[in-house]
Amino acid sequence: MTDAAGSPATTTTPRRVLLKLSGEALMGGHEYGIDPAMVREIANQVADSARDGTQIAIVVGGGNIFRGLAASARGMDRSTADYMGMLATVMNGLALQDALEQASCPTRVMSAIAMNEICEPYIRRRAVRHLEKGRVVVMVAGTGNPYFTTDTAATLRAVEVHAEVILKATRVDGVYDADPETHPNALRFSRIGYTELLSNRLQALDATAVSLAMDNEMPIVVFDMTVSGNIARAIRGDRIGTLISGEETR
């Protein structure tokens, strides 16, 4: 293809990101469950970013409804508890899909566990095609396997669909060298390396997710989603939160 002057036309590859939302992100001010107002706020920011041309995949957790690890600690079989947690992510994904479509944003929910009556099965090539067509893809049910967190699922899916970055939305504004809630003098990193994060046992993500990201050189941005507009800023690529990558500078 050439432009009017006869030179080859240039095309810009759309930015492709994976947004990781915890189930707790959907609670708003409630103690559990789904806050429709919070879901709409998240959906509006995602929809605006998608209309600007960014290709967006979302992995959502289920901790606002059921947390498998906590149930396992109280005596439930771990595999059973984790499968129940996966089903909770499906409910959250459907809530996000509804809010996104009300914002006039075409959306597909894709599940790692087959439930064809309510969502599509996760197939990597199909997910990529949806992204290329400008649809937001909400990926639910984790990896489809117990003993893996949704952080690990998010990293796996990001690598599979060739996302540029994982955007981990949390309730804190980045990665600290100690828990900022119990250590007022804790220092926030603007950037931290994978190995430093692992060696210091900083609890920003689980170790499996960080190791997978490191092996595939997948950068991760941890940011505070409770600040108005921060999801859109993170998707846009603004410098917020903490960047986890191969370079280690505070």
Topology:
Blueprint: E1 16-21, H1 36-51, E2 55-60, H2 68-73, H3 78-102, E3 107-111, E4 120-121, H4 124-132, E5 136-140, H5 150-160, E6 165-170, E7 175-176, E8 188-189, E9 191-193, H6 194-199, H7 207-215, E10 220-224, H8 230-236, E11 242-245
Parallel strand pairs: 1-2, 1-6, 2-5, 3-4, 3-5, 6-10, 9-11
Antiparallel strand pairs: 7-8, 10-11
Would you summarize the structure shown here?
The protein has 250 residues and is of the alpha/beta class. The chain has helices at residues 36-51, 68-73, 78-102, 124-132, 150-160, 194-199, 207-215, 230-236, and strands spanning 16-21, 55-60, 107-111, 120-121, 136-140, 165-170, 175-176, 188-189, 191-193, 220-224, 242-245.
Notes on the protein architecture:
The structure is a single chain. The protein has about 250 residues and is of the alpha/beta class. The chain has a single domain (about 15-245), classed as Carbamate kinase (3-Layer(aba) Sandwich), CATH 3.40.1160.10. The protein contains 8 helices and 11 strands. The chain has helices at about 35-50, 70-75, 80-100, 125-130, 150-160, 195-200, 205-215, 230-235, and strands at about 15-20, 55-60, 105-110, 120, 135-140, 165-170, 175, 190, 190-195, 220-225, 240-245. The strands form 2 sheets. It has a 9-stranded mixed sheet, with helices on both faces. Helix 1 links the parallel strand 1 and strand 2 (about 55-60). Helix 1 (about 35-50) packs parallel to helix 8. The longest helix is centred in the middle third of the chain and has 25 residues, at about 80-100. The model is unreliable at about 1-10 (pLDDT under 50).
